[in-house]
Input
Amino acid sequence: MLALSALVVGAQEVSVKYQPEVELGYSVGTGTFATGRVNLHTVQGVRVGQYFSAGVGLGLDFYHDLSESCELFIPITLNVKGHLPVNANVTPFLSLDLGYGIGATEGVSGSGGFTWSPAVGIRYKKVKFELGYTSQRIQEYGIGFDMNAVRFAVGLVF
Output
């Protein structure tokens, strides 16, 4: 009983606050299906204490090297981050997005698949810089392939 009450008291000291983010980035395609893309993503989440945050991500990925037109995928993800605050202004972090990307334009309509993106970054005050790897599985009619890229992003944390 004493141990349980200690956990409850300890849990009350952890602050939880709403933490939205928005970022603009560019992904340089790698591998067999190397395709560059412009990324606009947002994460609507919560910061739990100093060291952890989680949220739901929604994005727009404009693939510009596919055929003669741009194609759009909409990734819907779960985002988790581990933070390591250095001081009040500087916070390095590790991030992971897991989810599903949906083809939204005519050339990729009906296709989609698993997407994931691990990243490292640093936040300075409200500005964040991120370097990561992203993979979008594209599957249609039982045929699938991965579109992989190295992603660079700059964003704001509110």
